[in-house]
Write a structure and sequence with these properties.
heterodimer; A: mainly alpha; 76% helix; B: alpha/beta; Rossmann fold; 18 helices
């Protein structure tokens, strides 16, 4: 790859860093863990990289390492999104169930 | 358009999906959809990667790839679906660690492929960064998992010469990195990978259990950076964008999480270094084991609760472990029917992840207006007759306010100590997750009820109904 190529990638890197910072700047503390878990799943996209590496691997050693890499990355991306969805499932249950909660005058409360 | 251009466009779409996913995940309404958008983006990108010639070139490699993906999915889905709510944080740690490991492996294999052709220095530098950060994230996450799963002690692990050893490992890695850059030698890279794994372990050992969620967030950010490094190595915009997004947002998130605990990040990461932390700090000293505490009977406490005007329930990890959220609600309902004002005071980091208690209590259909955030609850604590602390400890420890030597000094706490009576439901006298003693347990106005939180709460409900 040429030097212009690396500059192009550095540009993308710097811009992505600013976007990453900006896009989550207003997250409430109750969502800290789901956000951590969700972004954990996003970097599971390394699976794409491991696929290319295993595709071009030659010889037993590289094949084993590549195989391991695909396996680990699949765990990351699949497990990451599923576990995040489970966390968020519990948040979603709230408004519907709240209507059933008949303890005191709380049923009139709108969503916050 | 060529296939390559199509692939680039699809990857651009996926990268946009990831940005939208993070945006969705930062507000309560869009969170679940955001996660699904992210999953869809990942699926599309992965599916389209199969059109890549490099991926399809050799049948054997392709078969291995599919086998690895099937095995991975077959392990990940049940693991993620069946994990208990209490064990979520360590699950995230695992998934994060394997991602870091995958990124490190990508860098290593690319290096193995390119090493014979004596690659340019910047190519080696990309590989080195990916290997170093990926390995630290991998082994660090493994130790974080072990701490949360209680396979090892949650207390900070310190030993003499710790700083010197860490510095030595750091220097050795730096030296190896320079040597690898100059020589392009594979053996040196392997040693560097091993030392990076060691660094991950010794970096995490001195971090106390209560701080581990913040640590996982930091390691998550590390894995993002390792993925970005792999993206540079593979000339992949998608990996650079996704990895950098996670790296950058992860660092911000880590800082926000430590702020929620009222601590600075360096304080969390390095406070146990060098100083062997004294348990109680302050003037009271240690040696708390033999000090008297007052333990009560559920019947007496039931009467106290039933005739109180205002009861504040302070939930913690013990509530989650005992799955006692439903019983807690029953008690609150029983008290509410008698005209007692009841609300829950939720510390932002109660349990083992931020938002843990809200999730559990929501599951038990606790009315939303009974849940009060710490800042909202604290001004009311001094007018409460009873603070009922259910399985919480560190989050009500007055040492955070009064004892400058304490490792949790400066953390905001729920002011349970200001209530007229304090009731602790505890499994044992064991200290909380931060591993420090709690003065409030010995306070004359405190009564302890030992046992599983769910059993004890059930007895309290019966006692309240009987009185």
């Amino acid at each position: 790859m040429s030097v212009t190529g690396i500059v192009e990638f550095l540009t993308i890197f710097v811009l992505a860093a600013f976007v990453g910072n900006e896009v989550i700047s207003k997250v409430p503390s109750i969502l800290h863990t789901p956000l951590m878990s969700g972004s954990n799943a996003v970097h599971g996209i390394i699976l794409v990289g491991t696929m290319i590496v295993l595709g071009t691997a030659q010889g037993t050693g590289q094949l084993i390492l590549g195989f391991l890499a695909v396996l680990l990355a699949t765990l990351n991306v699949v497990g990451g999104f599923v576990v995040t969805d489970r966390m968020l499932e519990m948040f979603k249950a709230k408004p519907a169930d709240r209507a059933k909660a008949h303890t005191d005058g709380s049923t009139t409360g709108g969503g916050k | 358009m060529t296939l390559g251009t199509w692939t680039d466009l699809i990857y651009l779409l996926a990268a946009t999906g990831f940005i939208l996913a993070l945006k969705g995940l930062s507000n309560p309404k869009g969170a679940r959809v955001g996660n699904l958008v992210g999953a869809a983006a990942a699926t599309v990108a992965i599916a389209f990667t199969f059109t890549n010639h490099a991926v399809r070139a050799h049948t054997l490699n392709l078969v291995l790839m599919l086998v690895a993906m099937v095995i991975g999915a077959a392990i990940a889905v049940p693991a993620a679906r069946l994990v208990k709510m209490t064990a979520m944080p360590q699950m995230v740690a695992i998934f994060n660690g394997v991602g870091g490991g995958a990124a490190a492996l990508v860098s290593i294999v690319v290096f193995l492929i390119e090493a014979p052709g004596s690659p340019a220095v910047y190519r080696i530098a990309e590989v080195l960064f990916g290997v170093l950060v990926g390995c630290v994230s991998f082994s660090g996450s493994a130790i974080a998992f072990a701490k949360l799963q209680e396979l090892m002690t949650g207390r900070p692990i310190t030993y003499p010469g710790q700083q010197a050893i860490n510095a030595l490992v750091g220097l050795a890695i730096l030296g190896l990195a320079v040597a690898t850059l100059v020589t392009g030698n594979t053996a040196l890279l392997v040693v560097l990978a091993v030392l990076s794994l060691v660094l991950g372990v010794i970096f995490v050992l001195p971090i106390g259990g209560a701080d581990v969620p913040v640590l996982i967030s930091l390691l998550n950010s590390f894995t993002g950076l390792a993925v970005a490094a792999s993206g540079f190595t593979l000339n992949s915009n998608l990996l650079i964008i996704a990895g950098t997004l996670v790296g950058a947002s992860g660092i911000l998130l880590t800082r926000m999480m430590s702020q929620a605990m009222g601590r600075s990040l360096p304080n969390i990461l390095f406070s146990a270094f060098g100083s062997v932390v004294t348990a109680a700090g302050g003037a009271d000293g240690t040696g708390a084991d033999a000090r008297p505490v007052r333990s009560g009977a559920p019947e007496d406490i039931g009467v106290l609760l039933a005739y109180a005007r205002k009861v504040v329930i302070v939930p913690g990890y013990g509530l989650a472990v005992a799955q006692a959220q439903h019983t807690a609600r029953e008690l609150a309902d029983a008290l509410g029917e008698r005209g007692v004002e009841v609300f829950y005071a939720i510390h932002p980091v109660a349990g083992r992840m931020p938002g843990h208690m809200n999730v559990l209590l929501a599951e038990a259909n606790v009315p939303y207006d009974q849940l009060k955030e710490m800042d909202e609850a604290n001004p009311e604590m001094s007018t409460a007759d009873v603070a009922l602390v259910v399985g919480a400890n560190d989050t009500v420890n007055p040492a955070a306010k009064n004892s400058p030597g304490s490792p949790i000094y400066g953390m905001p706490i729920v002011n349970a100590d200001q209530a007229e009576h304090v009731i602790f439901l505890k499994r044992s006298m064991r200290p909380g997750f931060a591993g420090i003693d709690n003065e409030l347990l010995y306070d004359p106005k405190t009564t302890l009820l030992f046992g599983d939180a769910k059993d004890t709460l059930t007895k309290l409900v019966a006692a309240v109904n009987a009185s």
